[in-house]
Amino acid sequence: MLGEPTPGWRVERRESARARILETAWLLARENGLAGLSLRDLARQLGMAAPSLYSYFASKDALYDAMFAQGYRDLLALPPIQAPDLREALRLPAVRFAHFCVEDPARYQLLFQRTVPGFVPSEKSYELAKQAYEALAEPAKKFGVESQADHDLISAVFVGLVAQQLANEPTSTRWIDQIDRAADMLVDHLEPTVSPHRADITARPSRPRSATSGRRRSKK
Length: 220
Hints:
disordered C terminus, single chain, 2 domains, Arc Repressor Mutant, subunit A, mainly alpha
C-alpha cells in the first residue's frame, strides 16, 4: 500500500536513532564521567522518555558495550602503519596509540581501564579490541618481534606512558614526549632476540623531541 514505510526505512531510522543516542552518550560521558552517565539524563538530553531508550539498548551495560565497540572501530579505521625499521615499528604505533588516547580521555577510560564497575564487553565487542591490539603489534612482528612476553613488555611501557600522561598532566605532552627514548630502550633490549634477516634494527635516525607529539599542546 502506498504511504507505508518499508522495512529498510525502519532499519535506517532505527540505526539513525541509535547513532544519535551514542553520540549524546559520549557527550555526557565527557562532561560527567563514564561512571556518572545516567540514562535518565541521556533521555532528557535527547528529548525522549527514559523507558524509550530500552527500545534501542537493552540495558546500561548494552549502551556501554556499543560505545566500547564504536571506540575500537575508530581505532581500527586508522590507516595501516608502514615502518622502515624496528625502531619505527615500535615508535609509530605508540605515537598513534598515545594521540588516540589523549584526544578523548573518556574513550580511553572505557577502552583501556576498568572505569565502569561491573561492565564487561561482549565477546563480539572484545573481538574488536583484539583486532586493534594485533594491528598495533603487527609492525613489530614484521621485524621479528614474535614472543608474547616481548609484546607484553612493549605494551606495558607505552601504555604506562599514556596512563601517566592522562593521570597527571592531560593537557601537556610531558610523558608522551618520552616515546622516542622508550623506543630506543626497547630496541636495545630486543636487538639480541629478533630474527636478524627480518629487521634493520640498527637504523635509528635522530628526531626532535617534539616528534612524538605532533602539534604540541600548550600547558595550562
